[in-house]
Structure formats: structure tokens, C-alpha cells
Design a protein that fits this description.
Elements (H helix, E strand, L loop, with lengths): L5 H4 L5 H6 L9 E2 L11 H12 L12 H15 L8 E5 L1 H12 L5 E6 L3 H8 L4 E6 L1 E3 L2 E3 L2 H6 L5 E7 L11 H14 L2 E5 L25 E6 L12 E4 L5 H11 L5 H13 L1 H22 L5 E2 L8 E2 L2 E2 L5 H12 L1 E2 L1 E2 L11 E4 L4 H24 L1
Parallel strand pairs: 1-14, 3-4, 3-7, 7-8, 8-9
Antiparallel strand pairs: 2-10, 5-6, 9-10, 11-13, 12-16, 15-16
Helix pairs in contact: 3-10, 4-10, 5-6, 11-13
Bound molecules: pyridoxal-5'-phosphate.
The site of pyridoxal-5'-phosphate has 13 residues, from helix 5.
Length: 392
């Protein structure tokens, strides 16, 4: 590829879009492939965006985000975690994904190592790779009660060249949740070793049986090498709005402005105004999504339990099931064949890191009716496959 440096030329399309792009706008497909539900962003948030437009909010603003939104994020986090955050530590670079990208760009040199807790969302690995870093993974263990990994196991996978570590809890795709004790051990280690910990907490409101997942913000010192990434996509059903935030060490504040200017010069202004409404009036809506998704998890667990070919370590958070289907050769073939035979879109496991080619990821954030229909079709497909194997 001419004019493209090797780290970029080597990149491959991830497995989620490799399956989804062929039938993206096809209404006959039940889409379990992306990380979103089917509920439109609520009226009060959309109205706030419309009002902002009508009020002429169409100009450049501060590249770390408008002050009123940064301050609303600080208040939201303070109330949620009983902390007292310095508002200057909050930046709004654009999406949560952009937050991870900028943090990775700031931390890594070509040839450094980056360590990712896996199974992991593929875009994380891609964004680390474009820095020129080598990406290592440390895999969670699948148990009958859920996915497990201790801080000590993560630390054991760190090399002398590791300069950044990525932890996503609650985890996409496994629903693993890191305990407070493990967070403390890992943060102490990163502080002592000066390794940038990128803590992706976009599923912070999606933990089953509790109001909020443990956050590194509850235990961090203001100058720890820690970037906590979060956003509006998941908890407020705002995936298309592309607004997220980061909480960084105060010493990085100015650099988030500089870096943001190199990407998109901050998040869309009228969307930022809508996000204030989301934070200030959205708690009831957040709770209703949380309940719906928790029930969605129970529906998937119930549909798959005791199935001879499906092993599902139950998720403890986020909104995905990551079952293993025995006797399949390739998760990509499985996902493509399922799509064409049953009009159900799932994400193939291989794209979530090594060791996952017999897994598929199912997003259970869709309405329960669609979820049940899609799961029935998946079970049908596996049954037909069983019958064909018996005959051949
Ligand atoms: C773990 C994780 N981090 C970040 C993101 C991106 O969030 P955003 O839509 O705000 O870019 C996702 C989206 O699926 C995700 O699963």
C-alpha cells in the first residue's frame, strides 16, 4: 500500500463489521452484532440538542469541551462515587473511543509493549497497534459462574517494556467485573511502575445487582498514571451522538486540548448540550435500561442453559453474552452462515483476541421480544447443524 506506514497497512477490518457491513441496513436482520439496543435516545435529550441548535450553538468551543458539560460530568461523578473531583481533570475529546485513542497515543512509543485484558473489544487492540506498540494480552478465565482474572495475573503478564495497560470493567464481551481489591493492587502497581492504566468504564452503570460498578476513580490519587474513559453511548442510549469523556491526571490537561485539536477539535457542540440534559435528568432512564438489560441477561442464560453444545459463563455486567459453541471450526463461518440462514447478526469470537474462535458475542440490549426471537433462531440453526452432522 503506497503512502501508508506499515503499522497501518497491516491493520485488518475487525470481525464485527466484517459480518455486519453486508446487511447493515436490512430490517429483516435481528442485530445482536453491535453494542447497542433498539431504544431511541429519549425525547428530553433530543429536545436539548434541538434547543441548542435553535439557540445558535454552532460555533467552535473549548477543545476540551464546554465548561457547563465538564462541570455536569464532575457533579455526576462526585455524586455517584462520593468523591470530590477537580473539574480540570475532565476532558470531552469526542467519543469514548477517541478517549482511548488519545490516551494510547500519549503513552506509547513504537516498540513499546501494551497489555490488554482479554477477551477484548477489537478496536482497543487496533488503536494500540497504530502507535507502533506490540500488543500483548492476558486472558480472563472462563468458569461456570463467570469470567475471572486477578490483578496478580495481570501483573504477571507485564514485561519490562510495558508502558500501558488496558482494563475494561464491566467487560465487553465477557461481562467480567474487576473487584475493588484487585483495582487497588493494579493501581498501586501502575503507580510504582509508571505504566499508564487506561480504565475503560463505559459500562459502569451496567452491573447486575448493584447501582454502579467499582471505579478506579474511587481509589485514585489525582496524579496517578490513570486515564478513566467513559461516555454517553451505553448508559443513556446515545451511541450515534459520539460523545464521551475522560478523567486524566491534572498534569495532562493541556495535552488533551492539544491532542483533541489534532483529531476532531472536540465533540459536536449541540450534542454536548444534550449531554448536560442526559446527566441532569436522565437517572430514571438509566435505571430503566439497566433493568431491561439485566433481564436480557437472564433471558439469554435461560435460553442456553443445559444446551449440550453451548457453554455460557454468565456475565456479571455490560450487555453481552459470550458463549462457546462446541464443534464449530470457525466463529466467522458460524456468524456468516447464521446470518444468511436465520437473519440473525452476531459478532464472531475470533475478533475479541486469541482463544475465542469457538465463541460468539450476542448483545442482549435489544427489546426482549426481539431478543427471544433471535435466540430461538440461533438455537434452530445449531439444531439443524447437529442434524446435518448426524446425517453426514
Ligand atoms: C469497551 C468499549 N469501550 C469503548 C467503546 C466506545 O464507546 P463510544 O461509542 O463512546 O465511542 C465501546 C463501544 O462498544 C466499548 O465496548
Amino acid at each position: 500500500m503506497k503512502g501508508v506506514r506499515p503499522e497501518i497497512a497491516r491493520l485488518e477490518q475487525n470481525g464485527i463489521t466484517a459480518v455486519a457491513f453486508s446487511r447493515l441496513d436490512d430490517p429483516s436482520v435481528i442485530p445482536f452484532w453491535f453494542g447497542e439496543g433498539d431504544i431511541v435516545t429519549p425525547d428530553f435529550i433530543r429536545d436539548a440538542a434541538k434547543n441548542a441548535l435553535d439557540n445558535g450553538e454552532t460555533f467552535y468551543v473549548h477543545t476540551r469541551g464546554i465548561k457547563s458539560l465538564r462541570s455536569a460530568i464532575k457533579t455526576y461523578l462526585d455524586d455517584l462515587y462520593s468523591i470530590e473531583l477537580d473539574p480540570d481533570r475532565v476532558s470531552i475529546p469526542g467519543s469514548a473511543m477517541l478517549g482511548v485513542t488519545i490516551a494510547a497515543q500519549m503513552a506509547l512509543n513504537k516498540g513499546d509493549d501494551a497489555l490488554v485484558v482479554s477477551p477484548h473489544w477489537p478496536n482497543i487492540e487496533t488503536t494500540y497497534r497504530i502507535t507502533g506498540a506490540n500488543v500483548n494480552t492476558v486472558r480472563q478465565r472462563e468458569t461456570s459462574t463467570g469470567w475471572e482474572l486477578s490483578a496478580d495475573e495481570i501483573i504477571a503478564a507485564v514485561t519490562p517494556k510495558t508502558r500501558s495497560l488496558f482494563v475494561n470493567s464491566p467487560c465487553n464481551p465477557t461481562g467480567w467485573v474487576m473487584s475493588r481489591t484487585d483495582q487497588q493492587v493494579l493501581l498501586d502497581f501502575c503507580r510504582e511502575s509508571n505504566i499508564l492504566l487506561i480504565a475503560d468504564e463505559v459500562y459502569h452503570r451496567h452491573i447486575f445487582g448493584k447501582n454502579v460498578a467499582p471505579s478506579f476513580l474511587e481509589i485514585a490519587k489525582p496524579d496517578d498514571p490513570l486515564v478513566v474513559v467513559n461516555g454517553f453511548s451505553k448508559a443513556w442510549a446515545m451511541t450515534g451522538w459520539r460523545v464521551g469523556w475522560v478523567v486524566t491526571p491534572i498534569s495532562q490537561a493541556n495535552h488533551w486540548a492539544i491532542m483533541s485539536e489534532c483529531f476532531n477539535t472536540g465533540a459536536t457542540v449541540f450534542a454536548q448540550h444534550a449531554c448536560i440534559a442526559a446527566l441532569e435528568q436522565g437517572e430514571e432512564f438509566v435505571q430503566s435500561l439497566k433493568t431491561q438489560y439485566e433481564q436480557g441477561a437472564a433471558i439469554v442464560i435461560d435460553a442456553f442453559k443445559h444446551h449440550p453444545r453451548i457453554q455460557l459463563a454468565p456475565p456479571r455486567g455490560a450487555f453481552y453474552a459470550f458463549p462457546k459453541i462446541t464443534n464449530i471450526d470457525s466463529s466467522l463461518d458460524f456468524a456468516k452462515q447464521l446470518l444468511s440462514a436465520e437473519d440473525v447478526g452476531v459478532a464472531p469470537g475470533y475478533t475479541f483476541g486469541p482463544g475465542n474462535d469457538r465463541h460468539i458475542r450476542i448483545c442482549f440490549a435489544q427489546s426482549h421480544e426481539r431478543l427471544e426471537l433471535g435466540l430461538a433462531r440461533i438455537l434452530n440453526f445449531i439444531e439443524r447443524d447437529d442434524n446435518e452432522r448426524r446425517v453426514s
